[in-house]
Design goal:
- By secondary structure, the protein is α/β, with parallel strands linked by helices.
- It folds into two domains: about 110 residues, Rossmann fold, CATH 3.40.50.720; about 180 residues, Rossmann fold.
- Strands 8-7-6-9-10-11-12 form a seven-stranded parallel β-sheet, covered by helices on one side. A five-stranded parallel β-sheet has the order 2-1-3-4-5, with no helix packed on it.
- Strand 9, helix 7 and strand 10 form a beta-alpha-beta unit.
- It is elongated and about 70 Å long.
Length: about 325
């Protein structure tokens, strides 16, 4: 069996691969996507962080490809025709980012109720104004998580630990640890009027693109807070800016945007009720090792014809 792997990770991958597949032939590709040997007979490709057009080039050169692993949770932009039309197993790295992203959601929520931005401003101004702030608690408030995948479930675990009431949605509703109420796709809209925090944690698919717009924002409470750690394209940003400017909702914590990097002239930068971060909620020193551990686990399963983890439904888009 021949594998095509990123040369950038050679020192980390080689001993792990040889442990589960000692007879495997490995072709390494450089940062320009150039392999160091022929890949026409390779069956496995670990796609590191190169653009979709480069992925298409790999697929064309690998007629024997049977399995493609992607080192991130979202596969939007990577389910290109070359992948969909062929009988290629696609797996993603859903779950490896769940801890840092769920912690980031709590950062957004805590920053909002504890008025962290205002407190930093007071510190910068050397002002001691303990009686002017109306701080709140997370305990007893309601968080609605749209998308109870591995990240959504990790968010629920942490939110419930803070004493929050947690609701959530998933394609097939079923009891979920830390979630008091689970509804199906689309039903989350009925819960918006009662939620104090609304968290977007669903994958970007043709179905979810632009699903959170003016009508959904109008259903939220005026003191509710919106958090997006999924994909910017899920939210109608024009409608969101309008809602934030008019204080239709209390504010938003946004780690993702339709255009990234966020343009310098974007209104999001200067809106006082927005916490902007540069798509960094996934960041952790443990992400690479978790991703490679997942790849090696799936490599073992692939070799032995066993069920693999995180197999992507190419038609559903996640």
């Amino acid at each position: 069996m021949k594998l095509v792997l990123p040369g950038l990770l050679r020192d980390e991958l080689l001993p792990r691969v040889k442990t589960v597949a000692p007879e495997a032939i490995i072709v390494w590709y450089d940062q320009n996507g150039e392999p160091d040997a022929p890949i026409n007979d390779a069956e496995v490709l670990l796609r590191w962080f190169f653009p979709p057009e480069q992925l298409a080039g790999f697929i064309h050169r690998m007629p024997a490809l049977r399995w493609l692993h992607i080192p991130r949770a979202g596969v939007d932009g990577l389910l290109i025709p070359e992948v969909i039309e062929r009988d290629i197993i696609v797996t993603n790295s859903a779950g490896v980012h769940a801890i840092p992203i769920s912690e980031f959601v709590m950062l957004f929520a805590l920053s909002h109720v504890k008025q962290a931005t205002h407190l930093h401003q007071l510190q910068a101004a050397h002002q001691w104004r303990e009686h002017d702030l109306q701080l709140r608690e997370l305990a007893g408030s309601t968080m609605l998580i749209i998308g109870l995948g591995q990240i959504g479930q990790a968010i629920a675990t942490r939110a419930s630990a803070f004493g929050m009431r947690v609701w959530g949605s998933r394609r097939t509703p079923r009891p979920t640890t830390g979630v008091e109420r689970v509804v199906g796709e689309g039903e989350w809209r009925t819960l918006l009027p009662e939620a104090d925090f609304v968290v977007i944690a669903t994958p970007l698919t043709p179905f979810t693109r632009g699903m959170f717009g003016r009508e959904e924002l109008a259903l939220m409470k005026p003191d509710a807070y919106l958090i997006n750690i999924a994909r910017g394209e899920i939210i109608d940003e024009t409608a969101l800016i309008e809602a934030l400017r008019n204080r239709r909702i209390a504010g938003a914590g946004l780690d993702v945007f339709t255009q990234e990097p966020l343009p310098p002239d974007s209104p999001f930068w200067t809106l006082p009720n927005v916490f902007v971060t540069p798509h960094i909620s996934w960041s952790s020193p443990f992400i690479r090792s978790r991703t490679l551990d997942l790849f090696i686990t799936n490599l073992h399963a692939f070799i032995h014809n066993e069920p693999m983890i995180n197999v992507v439904d190419k038609q559903a888009g996640y």
